[in-house]
């Protein structure tokens, strides 16, 4: 049984996840009014497109971090631009690749710190350098988080620090607040990714 307070958050997560997945992969997406709109699959060019100067993105580890970044987070041949505190101000503009990697890492690690080993770190998360790896990686992470949500009961929803994810306010919040926070992360970064796809399509032939 899904705890009644969790049910609407789970429905919202499923909606946001499906809408983002369809927006990235097609062949159709929800236009917002209940009708379907055709959309082609995202390309590597879109994934890595830097629409303004000094973007943060994912980069080959051998190339080093981008402007104002001090490190490349994650594991594998690619890393995500990052910086130690204090972070750069104003915040760098980020590519689809950066935003999708951030979402996927968050879902992966929070799932582990809720219903897994409770030990995985950013150094265990593999950053993907192309769409062929990034989109399935997002699906795997979203599936893991949904499974973690289904593992909790009413008592867990009220437990402060039930999720031991070390990069947020999890240690200070009841778990139901963390479930809400993950949803808003997915909703707002999903919207950003959709907008960047629209801008890329409408850039008027500019590189």
What is the total number of structural domains?
A: 1
- Gross morphology is globular
Give the rounded overall mean pLDDT.
94
Order of helices and strands: HEEHEEEHHHH
Strand order of the largest sheet: 3-5-4
Helix content: 40-55%
- SS-based class: mainly alpha
Work out the helix count: 6
Calculate Rg over CA atoms.
17 Å
Strand content: 5-15%
Distance between the termini: 51 Å
Biggest sheet features: 3 strands, antiparallel
Give a count of the beta strands, DSSP E runs of length 2 or more. 5
Q: Uncertain regions: pLDDT < 50 for 5+ in a row?
A: none
Compact overview of the structure:
The chain is mostly helical and 207 residues long. The chain is built from 6 helices and 5 strands, in the order H-E-E-H-E-E-E-H-H-H-H.
Task: Describe the protein's architecture and organization.
With 207 residues, the chain is mainly alpha-helical. The longest helix is centred in the last third of the chain and has 27 residues. The strands form two sheets. Strands 3-5-4 form a three-stranded antiparallel β-sheet. Strands 1-2 form a two-stranded antiparallel sheet. It has one domain. The chain contains six helices and five strands.
């Amino acid at each position: 049984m899904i705890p009644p307070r969790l049910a609407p958050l789970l429905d919202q997560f499923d909606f946001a996840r499906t809408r983002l997945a369809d927006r990235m992969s097609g062949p159709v997406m929800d236009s917002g009014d209940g009708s379907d709109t055709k959309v082609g699959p995202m390309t590597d060019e879109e994934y890595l497109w830097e629409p303004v100067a000094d973007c943060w993105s994912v980069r080959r580890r051998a190339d080093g971090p981008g402007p104002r970044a001090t490190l490349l987070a994650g594991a594998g041949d690619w890393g995500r631009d990052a910086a130690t505190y204090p972070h750069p101000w104003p915040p760098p503009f980020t590519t689809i690749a950066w935003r999708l990697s951030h979402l996927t890492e968050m879902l992966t690690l929070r799932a582990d710190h809720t219903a897994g080993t409770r030990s995985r770190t950013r150094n265990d998360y593999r950053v993907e350098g192309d769409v062929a790896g990034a989109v399935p990686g997002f699906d795997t992470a979203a599936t893991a988080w949904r499974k973690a949500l289904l593992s909790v009961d009413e008592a867990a929803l009220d437990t402060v620090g039930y999720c031991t994810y070390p990069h947020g306010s999890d240690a200070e919040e009841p778990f139901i607040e963390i479930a809400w926070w993950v949803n808003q992360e997915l909703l707002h970064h999903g919207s950003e990714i959709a907008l960047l796809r629209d801008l890329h399509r409408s850039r008027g032939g500019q590189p």
